[in-house]
TrEMBL record:
Name by which UniProt lists this protein: Myosin motor domain-containing protein
Biological process according to GO: actin filament organization
SMART domains: MYSc
SUPFAM superfamilies: P-loop containing nucleoside triphosphate hydrolases
Pfam families given in the database record: Myosin_head
UniProt organism field: Cryptotermes secundus
Domain Myosin motor: 1-192
Gene3D superfamilies from the UniProt entry: 1.20.58.530, Myosin VI head, motor domain, U50 subdomain
GO molecular function: actin filament binding; ATP binding; microfilament motor activity
Example of a GO cellular component annotation carried by this entry: cytoplasm
Length: 192
């Protein structure tokens, strides 16, 4: 898991630069992209994921087009290659996140009906998805923080103020979502 995370970080740091390739099929030169042979991040990425660095260099800068009769390899512009590099990093990260969720779910499996689950509160209430994306997790985490901020200011501080001023008040019992936030953000939490 740590090797994959390190590889994703190095993938994001691979430098893709302009390159001119000869023969675009029309007799002229076309713009393309390239990665230096000594790009440290690409070499570390290849080592971590046990990939051939030269093949990775080529695939990050070229697109494969399959027609009915032929296969073409078309160079990508720097903008296209950077977009493809970032999409690959996001895809690897999403697959890793899905794998972690699967491992956690298998560890929590039991033969009886489950009375426990991990739910994250968002603006519309608790949601349970078949597949949670990392983006959805981050959105729900942000919503937990917003809910905590809301609870802190609207309920907790206001009720303390009423107590100080000795105002008669029927206390509102509200859910403190700090344990959920701790599960996500503390040392040895999900984000750590």
């Amino acid at each position: 898991m740590f090797k994959i995370l390190a590889a994703i970080l190095h993938l994001g740091n691979v430098t893709i630069r302009d390159a001119v390739t000869e023969g675009d099929g029309n007799g002229g030169d076309s713009e393309g992209s390239a990665i230096a042979a000594n790009d440290k991040n690409l070499l570390i990425l290849a080592e971590l994921l046990r990939l051939d660095a030269n093949e990775m260099r080529s695939w990050l800068c070229h697109r494969k087009i399959v027609s009915m009769r032929e296969v073409f390899f078309k160079p990508m512009t720097v903008t296209e290659a950077v977009g493809a590099r970032d999409a690959l990093a996001k895809h690897i990260y999403a697959e890793l996140f899905s794998w972690i969720v699967t491992v956690v779910n298998k560890a929590l499996e039991s033969s009886g009906t489950s009375q426990r689950f991990i739910g994250v509160l968002d603006i519309y209430g608790f949601e349970t998805f078949e597949i949670n994306s990392f983006e959805q997790f981050c959105i729900n985490y942000a919503n937990e923080k917003l809910q905590q901020q809301f609870n802190q200011h609207v309920f907790k501080l206001e009720q303390e103020e009423y107590l100080k001023e000795e105002i008669e008040w029927k206390f509102i019992d509200f859910y403190d979502n700090q344990p959920c936030i701790d599960l996500i953000e503390t040392k040895l939490g999900i984000l750590d």
